[in-house]
Automatic annotation (TrEMBL):
InterPro entries: JINGUBANG-like (IPR045182), WD40/YVTN_repeat-like_dom_sf (IPR015943), WD40_PAC1 (IPR020472), WD40_repeat_dom_sf (IPR036322), WD40_rpt (IPR001680). This is Myosin heavy chain kinase B. It comes from Dorcoceras hygrometricum. SMART domains: WD40 (SM00320). Keywords: Kinase, Repeat, Transferase, WD repeat. One of its GO terms (molecular function) is kinase activity. Coiled coil: none annotated. WD repeats lie at residues 230-271, 272-302, 319-351, 363-392.
Length: 456
């Protein structure tokens, strides 16, 4: 495989330390890294509230080297085949220092096109969630603030009295935020002033919660001697996903349930006790499938079907059952593939079969837990507790190639968001994407990546 090591920070021998991974319970939410800033900030740099751009003369240079790798079997969870644990045979190659005649202009063009574009930083604490919509970027942090960015500049923001922002999704003119205290807030931007956002409701609505609270049959036991109405999450809302075709919002929680909301009237249609431990990811798939990943080490596929007089989600199959926590999921709708990241540093993926999902391989590129995933076009991106981001390209036959490794964060990469680079697409035939990465180093970095193998 061909790997581009795009460095946004200096490397150090200290980064190669063998850090022990935590057990299932310790990694189920990935929030244990909040108290380990000193451990993960070896390469952190002074941060500011303005956008810093990289110039060709910057120390943040781009280093190229090559290595070939295809999908491998997942029978062993070890990561011995990771290129990070092997010395590259190309380090001493003269081609890493000298260029052929006529190649200098091409490499300069690639340097302008790919890599780190800038960093966004405010004193809002750790970044837990991201959502890109049009020319706006929404970032959620532990400060309860939702910051809005436009053109790499601080555009606006809004704050709730709820807990830290664990998840953000955008649907049409509404922004949904999931919080640590189990609440889901609904916001709407002003039509005449996009910089103004107003909270327009909660999920569940106050009226719906009151009506369900009257009837004792609407209560479910969540802990010993404690019951709550089934329409309400009683623990952190860790993830959300939208089914745009049906107008449904899915929310997953550490209370082990996922709930189904009708966006048009904010009504909770269903609550499903899906796992034996916290749900860390919920992803709307293809063919009417919904995928959920949990700290109990399982990945499950669900389908919405008519059961009697009611429409309910039924379990179709369990795709994975391991001891390691599942931390994040992503779906490639065009290819019919679903990816699941785990705390063991692996990314497993399945492809759509005739009747069932078929296990197709493992992506090995990280030394520590993979905390977030994102899929766009032919690309799959994985962010890890090792502070790096791997950019994978899916080729014909389900073979994946690591196109680049993005480095620059001084802490674990907690969330990713991707959008098409429409401005560059008008001038270049290559399929370019803008990647936003949020980290526990309290910053968001902006990258440009490509699907074109010849550009890397």
């Amino acid at each position: 495989m061909a790997i581009n090591d795009i460095n946004g920070a200096e490397t150090s021998a200290g980064r190669r330390r063998d850090l022990r991974r935590g057990k299932l319970g310790a990694l189920m939410s990935s929030d244990q890294f909040c108290d380990r800033d000193n451990e993960f900030s070896i390469h952190s740099r002074p941060r500011s509230s303005y956008v810093s751009y990289l110039s060709p003369s910057s120390d943040n240079s781009t280093i190229y080297f090559s290595m070939k790798r295809n999908s491998v079997d997942s029978s062993s969870p070890s990561v011995e085949m990771s290129p990070w644990s092997q010395p590259s045979p190309y380090v001493k190659s003269p081609w890493t220092q000298y260029q052929f005649a006529g190649e200098e202009e091409k490499n300069e063009a690639d340097a302008r096109k790919l890599g780190l574009l800038g960093s966004l930083s405010r004193e809002d604490g750790h970044i837990y969630s991201l959502a890109a919509s049009g020319d706006l970027l929404y970032t959620g942090s532990e400060s309860k603030n939702v910051r809005v960015w436009k053109d790499l500049q601080d555009f606006s923001g809004f704050k709730s009295g709820s807990g830290l922002v664990k998840a953000i999704v955008v649907h049409d003119d509404r922004i949904f935020t999931g919080h640590q205290d189990g609440k889901i807030r609904v916001w709407r931007s002003s039509v005449d002033r996009r910089s103004t956002h107003k909270r327009v409701g909660n999920l569940p609505t106050t009226r719906d919660l009151f009506r369900k609270s009257i009837n004792p049959r609407n209560y479910v036991e969540v802990r010993r001697n404690r019951t709550v109405p089934w329409v309400k999450h009683y623990d952190a809302v860790s993830c959300m996903s939208v089914d745009s075709d049906l107008g449904l919002l899915y929310s997953g929680s550490w209370d082990r349930t996922f709930k189904v909301w009708r966006i048009s009237d904010s009504k909770c249609l269903e609550s499903v006790h899906a796992h034996d431990d916290a749900i860390n990811s919920v992803a709307m798939g293809f063919c009417g499938l919904l995928f959920t990943g949990s700290a109990d080490g399982t990945v499950k596929a669900w389908r919405r079907e008519l059961v009697g007089k009611y429409t309910k989600h039924v379990l179709v199959e369990t795709l994975l059952k391991e001891e390691q926590a599942v931390t994040s999921m992503a779906v490639n709708h065009a290819a019919g593939a679903v990816y699941a990241a785990s705390s063991d540093g692996l990314v497993r993926f399945w492809e759509r079969g005739k009747h069932f999902m078929l296990f197709s391989g493992v992506l090995r590129g990280h030394k520590m837990a993979v905390l977030c995933l994102a899929a766009a076009g032919k690309l799959v991106l994985s962010g890890s507790a090792d502070s790096s981001i791997c950019v994978w390209r899916r080729d014909v036959g389900g073979v994946h190639t690591c196109m680049a490794v993005l480095k620059g964060h001084g802490g674990p990469v907690k969330c990713l968001a991707v959008k098409k680079d429409t401005a560059a697409a008008e001038e270049d035939e290559a399929k370019l994407w803008i990647v936003y990465s949020g980290s526990l180093d309290k910053s968001v970095k902006v990258w440009r990546v490509t699907e074109d193998a010849h550009s890397s």
